[in-house]
Amino acid sequence: MQSTSEWNRRGLVLFLMLLVSIACSVAGLEPAFAEEKSTAETIPFKIEPPFAWNRTDKYVPPDFQAFFPDDKQAGAQLDQMIDGKLKVNSIAERLALIRRGLRNCSRHRTTLLGQVGNQYIWNRKEQDPRAIELMYHASASDDGGVAHYALYHGPTVVSDRSANLVRMLMEQYPGLDGQMQQRIAWGMRTYGDKEQTQKLLAGLLDDYRQLNDLTVGATLETWQAVFETDPPDLERFDDLGLWIVAFHRADVSATHPRAAEILREMVLKILRSHEDALLEYVSRVDAGHETAVVLVKGLKLRKRLVDTLSKYSHVEIDFNELFTARILQTRRLNELARFLPEGSPQSHLPTYTRPPAEAKYAYQAAEFVAPDYKSYFADDAEAGRQLDDAYANRLQLKMTDEELLDLFRRGQRHSTHSPNIMFGWIFGALGWPRDPRLTEIFYQGLDPTGPPAVRKAALYYGFGLGTKKTKNVLQALYGVYMAPPFDDTTNRNMRSRILWGVRDHEDDKYYLSTLFAQALRKHDELSDPMLQMVDMAYQQLTGSEPPNAEEYASRGVYLVICSGRPARTLEEAEQLVSRRLGKNEHVIHTQGLDEKGQKNVIVIVRGRAGLDWLIENLKTEPHLPIYFADLLTPELIERGKYFKGFEKYLPAKQEPREE
């Protein structure tokens, strides 16, 4: 479907109005800071000062267990409030009920907390301290979703920060994912007084002897991210913390027999006379590169290592972070677990094994080898059962990555779980580094003749934005793009994701565009829906029309709905638009359309040339907004209640409808 900016704006306004309506009804929340209604009754568990998040006499960390009572009756009442079946009289009563009932609420607690943040905290000129207190304590929940939504919609976007709130964020920082760490810094850059934020962070650093190394390290990283400079007296922290740095050389591939030694020698040269600070050195194969992973003690030597490596034009730093337990939740570096504090969360990722150097993969072949789902994924029911068992016990999994990948290949076809779940799991389970055996699994899943759900999952998890794509991968993605059906539901999102996945890589965009240009040179072999999608892909990839666009400019029939204002009747609206368009070879049919009292006009035009002409015509003054524009197909006629009888306007030779 093609829409004008006017239609997009109209749709956005309607969407926002609907969103506000849903927010108030679903979450049972009234607009922020609605007038409080007085009540003589005592509100149980009312949230009132002193608040843990902003008290100045002492630090009080968030405490989910103590703040939220285990009240099953309140949970049922909270469900009723969310469903609109229980009216509360004030914001104080509402927040108190959320506090009492959150533990035993059966509705989506994450959505509820998101609504609390949106109603009372985020982007509010006056932020409610009671709501902040609730979100402060909810961020310490053992439920990852609850903690995430509370932190995301609460403490990270508070404008009037306090010492306690900043300390809490820094204490939680080491255990958070990269997205949330970035959000903390973003919130500090975006909301509140930056000078005050700087003073609060400086206060933490001044008291660094009272804090653990992880909290101080988090404060140093956040300072750098917010202010893009080092804090004063950085030398105080020369020996502080453990830091993990990974890098590779563009001129040293994993096939070089001395690759790991070459990278290690670079590290030892930089850290000469400080070798004792090098706690561990390991190497990994990532996207074909030999990648060094260095665990170093002390901020000073970490800085020396990173600064020196950054001076080499052929060196790329893959990551440079404070070493925390979270690192081992996303990267297969289990041998570093011994350097974590006692009691740290254990990694659930499989043990790393080096990919066999002699292995051959279809996605890397010199000549194109098409993905073959049936040949690659075994028809093994027993392996499917074993794979489901592995998934069920994924948090206690004791396997190597090689064993897991082999089991996935043998068992995927007979898993009882959806491809989206299983491909998503294997993607997350292997984390970093990107294993060529995993890439091959994703590649084989792209087979256009295989199950559409597998194709979609392989594309989504395997070849998104920022992933390295060989020419064979690009050729396979082109095959997915060109595969039927050509409707608006099954494959449209898949096609848009293919184009999005190469958005930032000019070589990939160019190569894909040459494949689409080749298809357009044989446009007479393409159905009208397919031609439209190929033309759209070429234009999106290159920013220009195909060289031979005029050859097929009259192909297809397009249906457009535009405004008929200021007409008061359908007849007037149709006459208004017809007179404006005049006798033109592009126009096939015009017809009035009354949609909920709004007088619009349907215009059917011939070819993309006709569509472009119509859009330009309607843009001139007096401007008539376009609400809808798309290729006229049997599917569109079947879906649209206003399009019955339009079959007669379809091109004489129409491709059979795909199921």
What does this structure look like?
- The protein has 659 residues and is an alpha+beta fold.
- It folds into 4 domains: 26-233, no CATH class; 242-339, ACT-like. Chain A, domain 2 (Alpha-Beta Plaits, 2-Layer Sandwich), CATH 3.30.70; 362-551; 555-649, Alpha-Beta Plaits (2-Layer Sandwich).
- It has 27 helices and 8 strands.
- It has helices at 5-26, 64-67, 72-82, 91-101, 109-120, 129-138, 144-153, 163-172, 178-190, 194-206, 213-227, 259-270, 299-310, 327-330, 373-376, 381-392, 401-411, 419-430, 436-444, 452-462, 471-482, 492-501, 506-521, 528-542, 570-581, 607-619, 634-639; strands at residues 242-253, 278-286, 289-297, 315-322, 557-563, 587-595, 598-606, 626-631.
- The strands form 2 sheets. The chain has a 4-stranded antiparallel beta sheet with strand order 2-3-1-4. The protein has a 4-stranded antiparallel beta sheet with strand order 6-7-5-8.
- α8 packs across α11 (213-227), α18 (419-430) packs parallel to α20 (452-462) and α23 packs antiparallel against α24 (528-542).
- The longest helix has 22 residues, at 5-26.
